[in-house]
């Protein structure tokens, strides 16, 4: 029995086991914390039936783990091929959302997928597509990376368009993506002087979005709130209370009081709830898990034989962990309120799904040269293993 | 890879910053934030659902929930001057209002609490209503409000019954631990609704402020129940019973009025003697009609006679020798009420005179060899089963079985006259109602509709317990017997010429504790009316009347009669057409049928119609004489309902309202019918319906 399970795992679960471990740990924690934090939301929408969100989140977590598993079975080189198409689709979706999206929390970021009735955030998809495409473009141009006209112009155009489109409705996501792109270009050996150019492009895109987008005022307000030293904003105040009352060991699972005050305790401020319920210990553990994830992503990059694999792994892990750091930073008051979810931990459909696929791709890279593929027959596998 | 390492290092630095910030918040600022947290004080608290109302059959409120207030004070809030200058006048007003404690006591209590920094002092156990609260809010200290003076008005929903004690035991109650009686208890699952929940934040003292963060579970309001109780009949029944109980100084009494065709209980009154500080009063304390099981006595003879008529070839004209009024079964002597006995009488007379010896002899002769057969009849009438109707806590009837250990040679004769068995008054009434309802036995019904905001949620239909309790010829015979009781028998004192009453008296000696019978009586009368076309059935029981009149006929039957009279006068549908001489002459006098003599005379004189008056009365009625119009007196006295037939609506309203009645009218023209018969006692404030045409 044990052998068959072992055998199945060996045959079907490939790639870095530590990344798998981290992903599953965060998933379990996610179910616990979301269940606790949705207490108030459940009262609001489902007449006190908190189990609704427990089941929903468990289902979504399982779905994202399955997506991760599927993604890791696919040869990562395949992603390079579809990334350009994905990017064009993403751009169109962003435009569509801008004109006719669902307004949630005063920002049009969502489109409703018909039939399954699930809300879908195109910016998640766009971020994901851009990072893969960027890794692909950079890998192709590694030989003449210093050639501005040939190599950098197309890269910068794509970055500018996507970041700009996202910035129209979601300034924080755009800023984060911009930062991720910078990091990726930096790692992709783009000369530092060109990176400064990229900053110029980014700032320009930012200003345009700021002028014509709907989020300009919010951004200014949030920065003002954050920079104002005398007055702590309501949200930050509630978050600090959560952190302070959590103490070293926390109040225990499901014992949060601040979930009743914090807006979106199951998403934007989930880290505050973790600190309240699981204390400093839980908080440090979560930070450590993300750092470990990033570290394993770096290890994968180092081990990768192809530049594309390395850049892909680095780009995706950085995108994910940077977002995590920003979310946690906001919760403890290191930055203005952003509205970014905590990858893998926050409640939310598409965010969770793309996190799973991202990690799946990193795992796919970590497997090295694929000897077999989900879509290939087993025939080819035998001679190569021998 | 150097660049990747650099990037990684940056992220690690940021992670370090996050942990440093957490440490800062928890340790450096921890005290501050924890203190703020303590002040927030959150709690999920229940929001009580509003309890549903109980209505009468025409949607008059019988019970509803109204807000009342508990008055408390936080004596630490008012500042020194305000407190010291006003505490005397405040406590004076409080003491005067509540009358529970002296001014000095209240003042001491409040001042001590202030000294000890107690933040909550209840000022009286009595709750005040909204009007009183408004007034109190203007008193010294109180008028500074919750935050300036420290007054706390805690809202408590209290059950309010607009008709006070009327039918109190049947409307019932519910106490804190959800136990109670009557409709309030029986229909609690419908009335209660479902409590909601919401997050509340503590504010100074014991006050909680709802947070309104959208996390509430809204309370579900309770449903209303609409009863079959007719508040007019209830009032009539209650008044008649009370009057009689007071006169007789009886222990308790009970009346139930039921609508024959539907089994709807239109009135139910239970009054128990209640002595406090030497003052005797009667109150609704126990629901004897529903819960009180007793030996019914002679009213049970009806069941015996139905069994006899069903089983044997018994004719009402057969004769029975009842002897000299004493008859020995084994070691027990059965007496008849008449000294010296009834001698040889017919079966009909046995019932009408309520002869114990006659009844028991008939039953003993027919069923003595096989008492089980008699018992089976009683069982088939459903007399051994509870009615299992809408009120919880019904008394359980008991009919002995020959196989029981306590069955003896004297059981059958004594059972036949209503002893050695147990019934509740309502069970007896239901049985009599079946006879009135052509043999169809219907489960009594007290709640006919469950509604919400006037909209029907569920209608309750009456359940037929037994389609036919006896054969047609038996039915005709027993109805004849029951009418005979009032026409010629024990209840002839309540005979009425307007309408026929059918029924049976009952006088049972009460069982002593530990066996034997006391010289105390349980009297009853159960019957229905009008006998030829039964509309209502009714039972009256009066327990332990004092004085020398102690028989059912003298005690309970007159109460029945009084109730029946009033119901009869209230219910126009029951009336026979009135005798000719009271009617205005139809078709002859279009304008001058009845009215003010002066007006009518003037009209006739103007039109040249010969008229002549026979009376000095102000109000007259026209009658045709050979060739002139005669004015006959139409006496109007303030105590009784006047005859307004033939009058214009204006005249009728004038007279009736002067007599304290309220007028409702239908149609146009002159008064054709009036719902209260002329000559009936006018009940102030009740509504009379006039049909015009």
Describe this structure in words.
- The complex is a heterodimer of chains A (386) and B (693).
- Chain A is mainly alpha-helical and 386 residues long.
- Chain A has two domains: 16-73 and 232-365, no CATH class; 82-216.
- Chain A contains 15 helices and three strands.
- The longest helix of chain A is centred in the C-terminal third of the chain and has 34 residues, at 270-303.
- Chain A is globular, with a radius of gyration of 21 Å.
- Mean pLDDT of chain A is 79; it is low at 372-386.
- The longest helix of chain B is centred in the first third of the chain and has 27 residues, at 2-28.
- By secondary structure, chain B is α+β, with helices and mostly antiparallel strands.
- The interface between A and B is large, with 44 and 36 residues.
Number of strands of chain A: 3
Strand portion of chain A: under 5%
Shape of chain B: extended
What percent of residues of chain B adopt helix (DSSP H or I)? 25-40%
In the predicted model, the low-confidence regions of chain A spanning at least 5 consecutive residues are 372-386
Using only C-alpha atoms, the radius of gyration of chain A works out to: 21 Å
Largest interface: A-B, 44 and 36 residues
Percentage of β-strand residues of chain B: 25-35%
Helix content of chain A: over 70%
The mean pLDDT of chain A is 79
Distance between the termini of chain A: 27 Å
Tally of domains of chain A: 2
The overall pLDDT of chain B, averaged over residues, is 85
Instruction: Going across the biggest sheet of chain A, name each strand in turn.
Output: 1-2-3
